[in-house]
DNA sequence: CGCGATATTGAGTGCACTCAACTGCAGTGG
DNA sequence: CCACTGCAGTTGAGTGCACTCAATATCGCG
């Protein structure tokens, strides 16, 4: 509940970086303090690359401020946008426990602050605080479930349903009828396995069907959630 | 290396169940012994259900003998086959750390023996042997990477490429030019997000292109791996 | 206000789907 | 031993969804 912003004057903004992440924020202040010593903060401009496929991977990245996207590139050059990460989300996990070469790219969508922890420091933390490993396991299983569900959508649903399901998810996350899309049509298309043109068309169809209303390209109103999902 | 089959006469075949799983097989015999006490073995006929979507989930399932598939059903009734599990693979992980209701189905493809561990027993094991948690983290990150890659294929590749990539993966796993498909056309289609008819056609195309040779429906020979992937 | 980027709309094409018929093979029983 | 049955797989014909390429409209920002 209470965020002791003044506890650690010397480290300043780095503290909140650790305290906002689900995998750490359950720890006691002294334990957090230990972890904060291993954390480094880096700032990025909009559109900057954080890591690239082929890069050696030995770092966990935690979004502190701003917004980043992770994506993969097919041989053909076609992009699949894996996820958009907001403050408190983290990335780079895979390589921390098995592979050590990135297969995906990460870049900022806005000016951002990213906190980093080196693999060896994290492993020290896991040994010292085994409950962190359990938290990460929980987080992983959530991501795995999500990824599997996403794959199932691709395998079983047509584009219009995928868009509808995406909007419904967004609605559930944000909890308001007015939903804010976190990305452009191009990125949305790359996330849903389609093209910007088709996204435009399907959104227009959903609007004329009375399921949604487009206030601006990134602000949609969900009018009929149940109808949307049918 | 040495499998002490006679160490534990009273439990018989249950021992190997623990000793073949990557997440446990690094442990010392006395530690394995402890885990084996928590393990129960169940036998299934071909095509039997192990768990279903909506079931309460508090069990980890480890394949000992046989072969099982996990799949999801869309509202439409269309099936997405998530994975085929062979001896040593496990399933049911997600719910052990976060959700507690299955979203997928599991059923045997052959007569099988499945070992089960209850959630609370597993949690005890994780507390006692933290290195098991690290093994599971590694296994999770591998699965996550795999699932993400699979989703990327759906988002960026056409059906023929997805089939080719699947065959290439199989070839890599099995290490032989003669590749054995672990499932029927119908299941393969459900795994690749297409239909049995299209699988037939595309395999025929790959054959007439000289990339593969079909000896029988489930036995393929990879003739030109590089060509296959282009 | 003007420019470039982003989004929408339009026309035409092709990949993969559906529905249907046919083939091949394994198991069963006359 | 061979016809019979049923399932798995293949092949064929026709259709439609979503793609590509192109033109136009709109937004955001200096």
UniProtKB/TrEMBL annotation, chains A, B:
Entry's SMART domains?
cNMP, HTH_CRP
* InterPro entries linked to this entry: cNMP-bd_dom, cNMP-bd_dom_sf, Env_Response_Regulators, HTH_CRP, RmlC-like_jellyroll, WH-like_DNA-bd_sf, WH_DNA-bd_sf
User: Out of the domains of life, which is the source?
Assistant: Bacteria
Q: What's one GO-annotated cellular component?
A: cytosol
Domain Cyclic nucleotide-binding: from-to ranges: 23-143
Q: Does the keyword Thylakoid apply?
A: no
Q: Where is the HTH crp-type domain?
A: 157-226
Query: Which UniProt keyword terms apply here?
Result: Activator, DNA-binding, Transcription, Transcription regulation
Protein name, please? Crp/Fnr family transcriptional regulator
GO MF terms here are: DNA binding; DNA-binding transcription factor activity
